Amino acid sequence: MMERYFVNDDNFINSSDAISIKNLVKFYGNINALNGVDLKVNRGEIYGFLGPNGAGKTTTIRCMLDLIRPQGGWISVWD
Fold first, then answer.
1. pLDDT of residue 8
2. Measuring CA to CA, which residue among 65, 63, 78 is closest to residue 24?
3. What per-residue confidence (pLDDT) applies to 78?
4. Which of 4, 12, 28, 35 has the maximum number of C-beta atoms within 10 A of its C-beta?
5. Under a CB-based contact definition with an 8 Å cutoff, are residues 2 and 69 in contact?
6. Radius of gyration, alpha carbons of the chain
7. DSSP single-letter state for residue 26
8. 3, part of any domain
9. 58 in a structural domain
10. 48: CATH
11. Domain presence at residue 6
């Protein structure tokens, strides 16, 4: 069972974070697309999301937008 997003844990989410991702996990069948992804982007920062094909960039963004559901981890997106 996945623990659902938007965690209000002071040790994880900080008021200066625009995006917080902790231990994100996503499988497609037996293929592990995301394995424990952690990411923090502060408000006002510009962040480049770069990597080779198959690195999990699109899967991470789709999870952030709630287009697909991960099997584990937490996501908080400041609005």
1. 47
2. 63
3. 83
4. 12
5. yes
6. 12
7. E
8. no
9. yes
10. 3.40.50.300
11. no
What local confidence, expressed as pLDDT, does residue 13 receive? 53
DSSP 8-state symbol, 69: -
**What is residue 47's predicted lDDT score, i.e. its pLDDT?**
87
Neighbours of 44 (CB within 10 A): 7
- What range does the domain containing 53 cover? 17-77
pTM, to two decimals:
0.77
Residue owning tokens 């609005």? 79
Predicted confidence at residue 11, as pLDDT, reads 52
Does some domain include residue 50? yes
DSSP 31: E
Residue in the structure block whose two tokens are 């699109």: 58
CB 25 within 8 A of CB 35: yes
Residue numbers in the chain where pLDDT is lower than 70: 1-15, 79
> Does residue 37 contact residue 51 with C-beta atoms inside 8 Å?
no
Domain count, the chain: 1
